[in-house]
Write a structure and sequence with these properties.
333 residues, 5-stranded mixed β-sheet, two-stranded antiparallel sheet, 11% strand, 11 strands
């Protein structure tokens, strides 16, 4: 047993399913669709879903090929950012934006609404850390189509076929908590932020400071790693207007979720650019204060509710509604 797990336990009383701590992860839309009933009711949905899914997979594979041809040649020990020739970087970025948009189209996002608030400066945004609320798996494709940024992911993602190589190719930050040197997420993020601030030719960095997805009605507490450097951050707000099915990915199982998403004739998403958030001297000296103030700004601008809920609350809620094993939690002192 790992040392960290010695202080963890599953021997605790689960909370009630309707506990307010789970409100940020509770769905209230038409998400429990039975595929058989869905296809019997409308036989045209089966070919529609098949074509859309294969289309999204095809465009993702095309970008995988682009990354193999024009991206950096990497090994698992590569930590430093590979600086590509300008022409190769241009191909990597522009093809990534186009193909990400095609994936979104295949997923039913035919029109995407862009909102720009007064004071937004795109040039400054590209040299800052982009931060947004996190609602759906679609968020990543959306931001790739807009900024073509890089993201932070678990080390295990590196070994996922297609996805791992693409993320590595766009200078992704892989975090392994079991390896201090490479697993210190804060230090890796700081190093990338320093490169951006110094004008180094690297892709923008996009962080989801909540650390997980919610149902889009709440804003979870922010992790402070992206605020330690004290550099300005670029707030972006993501919304998914919907009638019957929400693209939020917080509790639904993956396969039914994808079927429901692909069976919609059209899905809707909008993103909103805000002015660069430049921290005060107090915020630079206090990452907790800085993260709280940015969180307040995004919540106020997006009209989201605050919640103290965390990723642990989410996985406990999953265990309760899915009737599976409770997650590990720290032992009471």
């Amino acid at each position: 047993m790992r040392k960290a797990e010695q202080n963890m336990t599953r021997d605790y009383e689960p909370r009630d399913e309707m506990d307010p701590a789970f409100d940020a992860f509770r769905r209230s839309d038409d998400h429990g669709r039975d595929p058989k009933k869905l296809f019997l009711k409308n036989p045209l949905l089966l070919p529609l879903i098949t074509v859309r899914f294969l289309g999204a997979l095809w465009f993702s594979f095309l970008y995988y090929v682009v990354v193999l041809m024009f991206g950096p040649k990497l090994s698992e020990d590569d930590v430093e950012v590979a600086i590509l020739p300008v022409w190769r970087e241009a191909i990597l970025v522009q093809s990534g934006q186009i193909l990400a948009r095609m994936v979104l189209f295949c997923l039913g996002f035919h029109s995407i609404k862009r909102i720009v608030m007064p004071g937004y400066d795109e040039k400054k945004a590209r040299h800052s850390t982009i931060m947004s609320n996190h609602i759906s798996l679609v968020d990543i494709f959306l931001m790739m189509s807009v900024y073509m940024p890089t993201f932070v992911a678990k080390e295990a993602v590196r070994s996922i076929p297609l996805v791992g190589r693409i993320l590595a190719g766009i200078q992704g930050i892989f975090v392994d908590r079991l390896k201090t040197e490479r697993g210190n997420a804060t230090s890796l993020v700081q190093a990338r932020q320093k490169s951006l601030a110094n004008g180094k030719r690297v892709l923008p960095l996009h962080l989801f400071p909540e650390g997980t997805t919610s149902n889009g009605k709440f804003l979870l507490p922010f992790k402070t790693g992206g605020f330690v450097s004290g550099n300005p951050v670029q707030p972006v707000i993501i919304r998914y207007p919907y009638d019957s099915f929400s693209p939020a990915f917080e509790t639904a199982y993956l396969v039914p979720y994808l079927i429901s998403l692909l069976s919609q004739w059209q899905n809707h998403v909008e993103y909103e650019f805000h002015p660069l958030y430049v921290p005060s001297e107090k915020e630079k000296a206090d990452p907790v204060l800085y993260s709280r103030n940015v969180r307040s700004y995004i919540a106020r601008s997006a009209k989201l509710k605050f919640t103290p809920s965390t990723y642990f609350d989410k996985i406990e809620y999953h265990a309760i509604v899915r009737n599976t094993e409770l997650p590990m939690k720290p032992k009471a002192a």
